[in-house]
Write a structure and sequence with these properties.
By secondary structure, the protein is an all-alpha fold. It has two domains: about 1-100 and about 225-250, no CATH class; about 105-195 and about 255-283, no CATH class. It is built from eleven helices and no strands. It has helices at about 1-20, 35-60, 65-70, 75-100, 105-130, 130-150, 160-180, 180-190, 195-220, 225-250, 260-280. α4 (about 75-100) packs across α10, α5 crosses α9 (about 195-220) and α6 (about 130-150) runs antiparallel to α11. The N and C termini lie far apart (about 55 Å). The relative contact order is 0.17.
């Protein structure tokens, strides 16, 4: 019995050291501090992922920024970004089966096509403009667009094919420049007063497709390893649980509340992006 307990303890310690090796040097949270503290740290990380997924289930978007803001306290950005992509890609496989009939696939195909055109431009701009300044400008623009929506701005008609492709170009530009492709699509769907269920399903499909494209790129670049994958698989059930709670809250809301809630989340996204970039640059 003692030998079995020792074997299990040694195995847990080995897995913990391997899985939590990228942890930042936080007091009481490093791999050498023991399995108990590592489990507490994992519980905190799990809670952050749960809350980020809850926001996604409620508003239809917002998971990457909420998760990135919290997980960056525990892991370096080079580990966090691929981890979030893995979570979104894994969840996207589950999600696509449920929303394939609700999503607006013609619109989505044009947005994705446009994003393929805009992404290289965003990367090119990033080579000449400091990343922090670019993120501050994008954050300010997101906040301004959110304010316009809160003031009641709506489009008189559904955006045409050219406008949908143009929105995709902006999505791709923002993804290449700031790794954030969602806000332009969110603005278009909210401004055009798209049915909330259809808008959410379209956004979920967009994020799943973008995540899988990103995974391929990151894997080819060597940014994804077994530690990313192992931690992502451990956190995926918590992401699923948080999403289900957020979705349940969404279904309890009146349909008219979807737009203001989603707009406030969009504004918060812009504010966090602006604030983090400003703090990182000037402080």
């Amino acid at each position: 019995m003692t030998q079995a307990y020792q074997t299990i303890s040694e195995s847990l310690a080995l897995v913990s050291r391997w899985l939590f090796a990228p942890l930042a040097d936080l007091t009481g949270a490093t791999a050498s501090s023991g399995t108990a503290n590592l489990l507490i740290t994992f519980a905190l990380i799990g809670a952050l992922v749960f809350m980020a997924a809850l926001v996604r289930g409620l508003a239809g978007f917002g998971f990457p920024l909420v998760a990135l803001s919290g997980l960056a306290l525990f892991y370096p950005p080079a580990f966090v970004v691929p981890l979030i992509v893995i979570l979104q890609a894994g969840f996207g496989l589950i999600d696509l089966g449920r929303i394939r009939r609700q999503a607006d696939w013609p619109l989505l195909s044009r947005v994705v096509a446009g994003s393929l055109l805009g992404a290289p431009l965003g990367v090119l701009i990033l080579l000449f403009v400091p990343e922090a300044y670019l993120r501050m400008v994008i954050g300010a623009l997101i906040m301004a667009a959110s304010y316009v929506l809160l003031r009641g701005f709506t489009l008189r008609a559904r955006p045409g094919k050219a406008a949908q492709v143009g929105t995709g170009v902006v999505c791709g530009f923002m993804h290449g420049a700031a790794a954030m492709s969602g806000p332009p699509a969110v603005f278009m769907l909210l401004a055009s007063q798209t049915d909330p269920d259809r808008a959410r399903a379209t956004l979920f499909a967009l994020y799943a497709l973008v995540a899988w494209v990103a995974i391929i790129s990151m894997r080819l670049a060597g940014a994804i390893d077994l530690r990313n994958l192992a931690l992502g698989l451990c956190l995926l059930p918590l992401m699923f649980a948080g999403f289900e709670v957020g979705k349940a809250l969404y279904h309890r809301l009146q349909p008219t509340l979807f737009r203001p809630i989603a707009t406030l989340v969009l504004m918060a996204t812009g504010f966090v992006l602006l604030a983090k970039s400003a703090i990182g640059e000037f402080l």
